[in-house]
UniProtKB/TrEMBL annotation:
Belongs to the UPF0756 family. It holds the Pfam family DUF441. InterPro entries: UPF0756_TM. It comes from Sulfobacillus harzensis. It is found in: Cell membrane. This is UPF0756 membrane protein HIJ39_21865. The chain crosses the membrane at residues 6-32, 53-73, 79-100, 112-130. PANTHER family: UPF0756 MEMBRANE PROTEIN YEAL. It is a multi-pass membrane protein. Its main location: membrane.
C-alpha cells in the first residue's frame, strides 16, 4: 500500500540509508513497521511522549560514567566552579530555553519536521556533523527565524 504517508517514510528511510544516518533510517523503518502491522494506535502516544522518552535515554547515556564511578563527586564539585564549568551551566540553561522555543515552534508548524531532518542529514553528509536530533535543529531554526524577524523589523 503506497499511501502518501508510506511513500514519505520510505523516502526518509532511503535518505537516511544514503546519508548513513542510522537514527533517521531506523526511525523511518520503525514507523513503517508500525503502519504495516496496523499498530498505528501507538503513534499518538509516540507523538505525545516520544521526545520525553528519547530525552530520558539520552540523559541516561550521559549519566552512565557517573553511575560507573568514572567521575567522582570531587571532580564534579571542582568542575562546577571553573570557567568551563560555569559556561557549561550557562550553556545548558540557554540551550534548554532555545530548544523549548524550537519545540513550541514545531508544535505550531509541524510541517517543518521534514525540513529539519533533511537539514540534519545534509549536515552529516556535507559538514561532517553529528545528528543530535530535531529538537536541537528546531531550536537553531527558531533562533534563525527570530534573527530574521528582528532584522526585517529594523529595516521597516
Amino acid at each position: 500500500m503506497l499511501t502518501t504517508e508510506n511513500l514519505g517514510l520510505i523516502g526518509l528511510l532511503l535518505l537516511g540509508l544514503a546519508a548513513r544516518s542510522e537514527l533517521v533510517a531506523g526511525a523511518a523503518a520503525l514507523l513503517l513497521m508500525l503502519r504495516f502491522t496496523k499498530m498505528t494506535f501507538v503513534l499518538p502516544t509516540l507523538e505525545r511522549r516520544g521526545v520525553e522518552i528519547g530525552l530520558l535515554f539520552l540523559t541516561i547515556a550521559m549519566l552512565v560514567p557517573f553511575a560507573q564511578g568514572l567521575v567522582s563527586m570531587k571532580e564534579i564539585g571542582r568542575g562546577l566552579v571553573t570557567l568551563p564549568g560555569i559556561l557549561a551551566i550557562i550553556g545548558g540553561m540557554v540551550a534548554t530555553r532555545i530548544n523549548g522555543q524550537g519545540l513550541r515552534m514545531l508544535n505550531q508548524q509541524s510541517h517543518l519536521m521534514i525540513s529539519l531532518i533533511v537539514g540534519s542529514i545534509l549536515g552529516i553528509v556535507v559538514l561532517g556533523g553529528i545528528p543530535v536530533g530535531p529538537l536541537m535543529a528546531a531550536g537553531v531554526t527558531y533562533l534563525l527565524l527570530e534573527g530574521i524577524s528582528l532584522v526585517t523589523h529594523w529595516f521597516h
